[in-house]
Amino acid sequence: MEPQNMNAQGPSESYMPPQMPATEKKPIGPIIGVIVILILLILGGLYFFWSSKLDGVEDTLPYIPSDISQNLPPTSSSDAITDIDADVAATDLDALEAQIDADLKTAESSL
Q: What is the pTM of this model?
């Protein structure tokens, strides 16, 4: 007869320690992805904001006062084609161009 392993509880079976309940592992990859995207958006916004401040170059054209409108003949406020044609014919474009060229040379010399 073969000896049986007996303990206080009865025949021996393989002893298994009590197991801990399995914890759910949530994926961390999407969370890290969202954090990286948010950091990139914040850094891009800061770069855009500060780069315009650091340039020191204004995006607006400088105002150059001129008396060009004083050299133009008075125009009518009519919408009729004949009145518009008469206004265009009365405008001396050569004098207007000369005035613009003079103003442009003045502006270039001040730079």
A: 0.31
Closest CA to 39 of 50, 27, 47: 47
Please report where in the chains the tokens 């298994």 appear, as a residue.
16
- Domain range for 78: 68-109
Report pLDDT digits (tens) over 72-108.
667 778 888 998 888 888 877 887 788 888 888 888 8
Query: φ and ψ at 7, to 5 degrees?
Result: -120, -170
d(CA 87, CA 99): 19
Domain count of the fold of the chain: 2
What are the C-alpha distances in Å from 15 to residues 7, 9, 21, 90? Answer: 11, 12, 18, 112
Let me know whether 74 and 101 are in one domain.
yes
The answer to whether residue 4 is domain-embedded is: no
